[in-house]
């Protein structure tokens, strides 16, 4: 009997040790740990602060797919449009500390706090990667009487020229403001929520001119449904499809400004989470998916990460303050 009791006691001790070991291992791990390293807490979500179909949506979906490929993490895309981007950014602000949320960022992140009463600025978030620079083209319907950017400026001196902008703080709003400052003319603006809505209105003859990213209108330019008058870039594009389009500067309108495309994480995440997403972004940059995104959207590749991205944002924010305040 004594030996039987001792036997059960030994078995109980071994079981207790095993359970204790399992409990300790569970307590020392976090959701998503992989071989002791950091991983996001479950599936990730990419917030796009504009509606589907525009440049921000294209960017967000390309980044999500690229990061998903290099990390193995499922990344869904969620459009939260409204308020020229303010709705999406405000929703993202509420995700502070969450390591599995990302947002497809662009110039609106800087412009919104300068022009609207919002509760955030770029320092509220964790900058991860700037993919590159996205300039715009001044485009019109194929039957428009305008043939150059100078024609548009000359017309605006004498009559009402209706210009569409995809949000009151968008890149096209900034570009038209810069043109007004440089030439002294004034445009009659009609705001829309996305580049796709601007494109539809231009094709429908409801507006006169629009400033859109090449990636949003390349198909219409190639089909002849739109014509480009000039590019608001420092130099002409090297892409074959755009090489013949003169810059605004060539036509006497000294304006160039690029919207950045990139992604951010919420504020308050750990250093490990920040480095995880930066490392994933760097791996994404080396992929065919990144090259395809840059080329298909006719962008200028210029990737920077982390602290370098912050430095870029500081300078870009200072430039925008001169225009928007």
Give the SSE string: HEHEHEHEEHEHEHEHEEHHEH
H/I helix tally: 11
Strand order within the widest sheet? 2-1-3-10-4-11
Please tell me the CATH architecture of the largest domain by its name: 3-Layer(aba) Sandwich
The SS-based structural class is alpha/beta
User: What is the total tally of β strands?
Assistant: 11
Give the low-confidence spans.
1-35
Number of domains: 2
Approximate helicity band: 40-55%
The percentage of residues in β strands lies in 15-25%
Biggest sheet overview: 6 strands, mixed
What does the average pLDDT come to? 87
For the record, what is the CATH homologous superfamily label of the largest domain? Bordetella uptake gene, domain 1
From the N-terminal CA to the C-terminal CA, the straight-line distance is 90 Å
Q: What name is given to the CATH topology of the largest domain? A: D-Maltodextrin-Binding Protein, domain 2
Radius of gyration: 25 Å
The CATH class of the largest domain, by name, is Alpha Beta
Explain this structure to me?
The chain has 325 residues and is an alpha/beta fold. The protein folds into 2 domains: 44-134 and 259-324, Bordetella uptake gene, domain 1 (D-Maltodextrin-Binding Protein, domain 2, 3-Layer(aba) Sandwich); 137-251, Periplasmic binding protein-like II (D-Maltodextrin-Binding Protein, domain 2, 3-Layer(aba) Sandwich), CATH 3.40.190. Helices cover 44% and strands 18% of the residues. The chain is built from 11 helices and 11 strands. It has helices spanning 2-27, 55-71, 86-93, 108-115, 149-158, 171-183, 195-203, 214-223, 271-285, 288-296, 306-324, and strands at residues 44-48, 75-79, 101-105, 125-134, 137-140, 162-165, 188-191, 209-212, 227-231, 259-266, 300-305. It has a 6-stranded mixed sheet, sandwiched between helices. Strands 7-6-8-5-9 form a 5-stranded mixed sheet. Strand 1, helix 2 (55-71) and strand 2 (75-79) form a beta-alpha-beta unit. Helix 2 (55-71) packs across helix 9. The protein is globular and about 65 Å long. Mean pLDDT is 87; it is low at 1-35.
